[in-house]
Each structure stands twice: as C-alpha cells, then as structure tokens.
Specification:
Distance between the termini: 21 Å
Largest sheet: 5 strands, parallel
Strand order of the largest sheet: 2-3-4-1-5
Number of helices: 20
Oligomer: single chain
Structural class: alpha/beta
Number of strands: 13
Strand content: 15-25%
Length: 468
C-alpha cells in the first residue's frame, strides 16, 4: 500500500506507457521509500533489476552484476571485465527478452561508481548507444546519494547531459501522510501524538515503520531511541556515512549547524568547523541541501550572496538534543521526561521546524497560496536584539510575522507575550527600514484563547490546519 506519492506514481506510469524509451532518476534521502515506491508501482516485476553494493570495489560490484543477470533469467554469463562489458551483457540479455516495455531498475547506483571504475561513462554508452536507440526500454536509476545523481547525471557535461527524461525526487511525508501511514499500520495516535512523532523522526517512512502497535508513542520512542538496542539510536552515523563517501566534513557542518537554530552563513560555518575556505565548502553545502538535511535561504534584507544554511532534519536535531554525548540506556527515559525543562525547550524548537516543513499548509490557511513569497527566520543582535520565528515576505507587499508557540493546552496571549511580540516588530522595522504592512500571525499547537490580546493578531494557524 502506497501512502501519498500520487504525482510520483503518475510520472512512473507515464514513463512506462511512453512510446519511446525513457530514462528515469529517482532521488531522495536515505529511508525515504524510493526503492519501495518503484517496486510497488511495477508490482515487483522487472525485466532486470540490480542493486549496488556498499563499500565494495569494482571487481566485487561486477561479480554481483553477473549474479543479477543470472537471477533475472540469463542462461549463461561470465563475470564482466569492466562496466562497458557489464552493460554489453545487459544489452544482450534485453535483446532476448519478450516483446513489450522492458523495465531495467538499477538501485543504489552511486555505490557502483567505485574510484577509476568508468561506471558513469559505461552507463552513458549503454543509454546513448543502446537503450535510446530503441522504443521499449524503461531505465530507472535510484540512490540515496542525491548529490551523486545531481553531479554525475543531471549536471553531466558529456553524453548524459539532458538525457534523463523524468526526474522524481521523493520528499518526506507531511503530517497528513504520517497520520494515514500510522493508521495503515494499525497505530492509534492522536494528531498531537503524530505531531510529536514528526518532531522526533520527521516524515521519514522507514522511521515510522519501526513504531509498534499496542505501545504508546512515548513507549515506542523509549524502545527505538533510548534502550540499549534501540534501532534508531545508532542511525546518525550510518545516515551520513551511507550518503557521502567522505562523510566527515559533512558531519562537521551538520554538527555546527545543529548548535544554531536559525542557521549560519558560509563564513560562520567555516569558522565553526575549521574547514578550508575553498570551493569544497560550497560543494558540501550543496550536497547537504540536495539531500534534504539543510535548507538554504536568503534572510530578509540581506544580499543573495550571503545565504543562510539551516539544519532542518528532525531526526538529526533530536539526536543532538537527547542522544549525542548522553549515556542513555533507560527503558523509560522519554516517558519520565515529559515535564522536564529540557523537553519543553526542545518541544518549542522542534515545533518551529515542523512548521517550516509545512509552509504550503500555512500559506493555504492564510489564503496566500497563489501569492509568490519567501520564508525565513530573522534576528538582529544590535541593541536590545530580537528574533522572529518565521517571516513571510509576500509579493503583494505584505509581511506576515509569525510567532510560533507550542503548548499542550490552549495558548493564552498574555500582556508579557504581547509586549515581547511588539518589541520584535519594532526592532524589525527599525533595522530593516521597511514600510510594508505587517500582519501578526500566531501559529500554535493548541487553539488560542480569545482574550483581549487576541484582537491584536491578524490571523492564526493551529496544528489541526497543518494536517491539511
């Protein structure tokens, strides 16, 4: 059963039904469901399928490719001498396949590109010299290292330039899709519990698949993250090692960004990590952005060459807050932390990230879905200082300043809260010199109490509306 992914399913089916050969690339971060989607759409029926091996040299990769050919029905097959030979054998196998569209699914492609293997050149030759010259080949490549596919396939300056006919990038589930997925697995969760699960795991289907029915969310989090054998307790290193061949600089950047909620610019990242100030730093940041761990945005009033990079991966942020450098082995750590200050502070920050992952739902509630806008956080350290959780700069010359608040009970706007918000707005006007109308928007986990200060806001968005 596939949850969501309606457009992606349409794209895959269109490629299959095309009267010409099609080259499809499916990308998305680790654990997002790329392989599952392709297999489900085509009912696990492929003319040829193969998956690259992690951390193996070319010789072993070629041996495995031969085994895949044999498993798919090739009667006799030698071990290929190199990737050119491997794809030649594949073309011979496809020549003997029954009439009709032939689906070739090659998973974990980045792992097949060992140093000096000439894999990309051989793939290029297979597509240009064989598959594209026919009308019956559907080639699907897939891999968690989105950056590898972008740099070696999409941005290829040789024979693969503009050869991909369909690009499919899988994004994390939304809250609504997480709720549907939880129900499909027999989990009984309220919207607030789904939101808390999202604040911990994001919308990564594999993580949600680890939840066990019959247990509360808190019990599941203790089992997965805080027990000695917790499946997701050790995911952090595996996550980045599996995506990047040289993972250490990426981990350094992620560690640095994890210390600053609204993100850092390039110079701040270099200072925080000690990485060399050269073109590599830009490559690392582009890769992290392409893989969905980091968001790049331009702060209001700042030049475009001074972009801010913000860590947005919910799992990684949760790991930094509660697991890294903590000797946790308690079976009920999470259940017993519900009223602690540490957890309440985390809830506020994690709810903000959840809101940034649901910008389209917020804009829909505000009635501005059709208006071009940019979204960012904002802060100033000058004078009294001020920080705005979310700022929506709209093309209709209105700015929404969004105050994001997490609470389990109905939220009350007190005089102190209102004074603090007004201070932020004043500082924003003073620093930016903007004359645009400012609409104050409250985004809250629980509904607002309609008291005297409620009349000072222009609009409100609640957690329920993020499930749209």
């Amino acid at each position: 059963m596939i949850i969501g992914r309606e457009q992606e399913i349409k794209d895959l089916r269109r490629a299959y039904e095309s009267e010409y050969s099609e080259f499809v690339a499916v990308t998305g971060r680790r654990r997002i469901g790329k392989t599952f989607l392709v297999r489900e759409v085509f009912d696990y029926k492929f003319t040829f399928q193969h998956s690259g091996l992690a951390n193996q040299k070319t010789r072993q990769q070629l041996k495995e490719f031969r085994l895949s050919l044999l498993k798919c029905g090739m009667k006799k097959c030698r071990v290929p001498q190199d990737w050119y030979d491997a794809f030649f054998l594949l073309s011979e196998f496809l020549d003997g396949a029954p009439k009709g569209k032939k689906i070739v699914f090659i998973d974990e492609v980045p792992w097949m590109d060992a140093p000096r293997s000439n894999f990309v050149s051989a793939l290029e030759h297979f597509w240009n010299g064989y598959a594209s010259a026919r009308k019956d080949i559907l080639l699907i490549i897939c891999g968690s290292s989105t950056s590898w596919i972008i740099n070696n396939v999409y941005k290829n300056h040789g024979g693969l330039h503009n050869r991909v006919t369909e690009r499919i990038n899988l994004h994390p589930f939304t809250l609504h899709e997480c709720m549907l997925y939880a129900k499909s697995r027999g989990l009984v969760l309220s919207k607030s519990q789904v939101a808390e699960g999202y604040m911990i795991m994001g919308g990564v289907p594999f993580y949600w698949a680890q939840l066990q029915k019959g247990l509360s969310l808190d019990q599941n989090i203790d089992r997965l993250f805080f027990s000695t054998e917790g499946k997701l307790r050790y995911e952090y290193r595996e996550l980045y090692h599996s995506l990047f061949k040289n993972s250490e600089p990426y981990i350094q950047i992620v560690n640095a960004l994890g210390q600053k909620k609204i993100g850092m610019n390039r110079d701040e990242i270099i200072i925080a990590t000690g990485l060399a100030d050269n073109g590599k730093i830009g490559e690392y940041l582009d890769d992290l952005t392409a893989c969905g761990f980091v968001k790049r945005y331009n702060a209001f009033g700042k030049p475009k060459n001074n972009a801010i990079y913000q860590l947005i991966d919910q799992y990684t942020l949760f790991y930094f807050k509660f697991i890294e450098n903590q000797n946790v082995g308690s079976d009920n750590y999470w259940m017993s932390s519900i009223d602690t200050t540490q957890r309440k502070v985390w809830e506020g920050l994690a709810f903000e990230q959840l809101c940034f992952s649901h910008i389209s739902q917020i804009k829909q509630k505000l009635g501005i879905s059709g208006i071009v806008s940019s979204v960012c956080s904002w802060q100033t350290k000058n004078g009294d200082g001020a920080q705005i959780d979310m700022l929506i700069d709209r093309a209709d010359e209105v700015i929404n300043i969004c105050e994001i608040k997490y609470s389990r009970k109905k939220y009350v706007i007190t005089k102190d809260v209102m004074d603090n918000i007004n201070h932020k707005i004043e500082r924003f006007r003073d620093v930016t010199k903007t004359s645009q109308p400012i609409h104050l928007t409250m985004i809250t986990a629980a509904p607002l109490v309609h008291n005297e200060y409620w009349n000072d806001i222009q609009s409100e968005v609640t957690l329920d509306e993020l499930f749209l």
